[in-house]
Amino acid sequence: MRTLILILAVLPLLATQAHAEEARPYSAQETIRRAQIGTHSPRLAPPVRVAPAPARTARPSRYDRLVCRVDPAKPLHQQIICEKQK
Questions:
Q1: pLDDT in 10s for each residue of the chain, 86 residues
Q2: What is the rounded distance in angstroms from the CA atom of residue 73 to the CA atom of residue 20?
Q3: Which of 26, 66, 69, 75 could lock onto 82 through a cystine, CB 3.0 to 4.6 A?
């Protein structure tokens, strides 16, 4: 019972101090700035130093190059003959 009376006594004091946040005036620039967050807008992007990418080293191919030719003397399903290029 005492807690209820205490709460009822403190609640009006807290309610008078609480008030709504003041509304800010409309700003088109602020709206545009908030809309551009996360986009690729050049005006919002920080300056970046551009450096050339390091040269890539040549890798050997994972696949062998084949040389193919037609052999009309063989049956139709075996006419194309492919061999590894030397």
A1: 888 787 877 777 766 666 667 777 888 888 777 777 665 656 666 677 888 888 887 777 777 888 999 999 999 888 999 998 87
A2: 94
A3: 66
Of 78, 80, 83, 79, residue with least CA distance to 67: 83
| Residues comprising the chain, all counted | 86
Give dist(CA 34, CA 44) in Å, integer.
Answer: 11
**11, two tokens:** 């609640």
Comparing CA positions, the residue from 67, 64, 60, 62 lying closest to residue 82 is: 67
Query: What CA–CA distance (Å, rounded) separates 74 from 72?
Result: 5
pTM (predicted TM-score): 0.27
The residues spanned by each domain of the chain are: 1-84
